Amino acid sequence: MKAMRIAEGVYWVGAIDWNLRNFHGYETEKGSTYNAYLVVDEKIALIDTVKEPFKEEMLARIASVVDPAKIDVIVSNHAEPDHSGALPFIKGIAKDAKIYTAAGAGVKDLSAYYGDLGYTGMKAGETLSLGKRTLTFVPTPMVHWPDNMVSLMTPDNILFSNDAFGQHYASDERLDSECDLAEAYIQARKYYANIVQPYGMQTGKALEALAGLKIDTICPSHGIIWTEHIPDILALYRSWVQGEHDGTAAIVYDTMWHSTEAMAHAIENAFLAQGYKPRLYNLHYCHNSDVIADAMSADFIAVGSPTLNNNMMPSVASFLTYFKGLNGNKKKFIAFGSYGWGGQSPDQVFEALKSPKCEPLMPAVKFAYKPSDGQLKALEEDVIRALKGE
Ligand code: FEO
Known about the structure:
Structural class: alpha/beta
CATH class of the largest domain: Alpha Beta
CATH architecture of the largest domain: 4-Layer Sandwich
Bound molecules: MU-OXO-diiron
Distance between the termini: 64 Å
């Protein structure tokens, strides 16, 4: 396990989690990395650590460059355990190291997790000299925890951005110039949708705070490092923060005997007829975290469930809970579903979707048992009329 050199005196000393498939409910089909960085200057600094089970991997990478006991400075940009889990371990080795974190929330969160390891809280704009280099701390609260901050290192102009601009993407390549770039963008979008999306306003403020800074390298805490494609990832973040729509309609459903599925296809036909790009997601096969990634930029969301025991299906309830917590974009919605008796589910879906960001396109639609071709055609025409505003 060796460190990977990023720039003169700057090394990646993190860990690759090839097998991660679930990150608190988010399906991480490409694994992840926990990125920690080592800066060797007059002082030796470790920027963030790794998830606790990977502490020996981090230690071995650090030891390939310097004696870990000689670390002078540990910066904790974020207290979530995937970045702070190895903090007590490394502090136990680098006993004289001072730990710097965000004033207030950073000190509070690290103290809650690990007790008093001796934290120095850094406020916005405060700096720390490492010798030839200086770290400047910029709080980015709620991107995506209250304690988040980023650290800009000059004169290298390296931004240690922690979760921002990250991706759950395990690879042996560390840089955007050498990795599968298309995959990095897919995973960056999925990461934003599943982690950062509800905090668009705060992320927008963070982007504004970074706008005037010269940044040559972005070192996030997950995935690949941005060097050649910084304008591209910044532009993508701006479009996500601004809630730009992409002309799609996410049609999300589960089905028992294909009746709700037939309704989904009638709605699909209506969107197609009106020039939108419908995308269908049967929740029996599609994971919430993938659906959220696509639904983030959709103009419309249609959610359908049969009625099961007087309720919507659990898969749909799960999706709606996830969607409610994450959705950051304005959308119009359709609630629909089939039933044998009872028929509560479409109204339940309708109520679950209503929010300041989600407005109904039309009343909830429900059909008993197996909808006829005529009923499905009528549904298609109703949706078309609603889309036309008639
Ligand atoms: Fe990657 Fe918020 O932790």
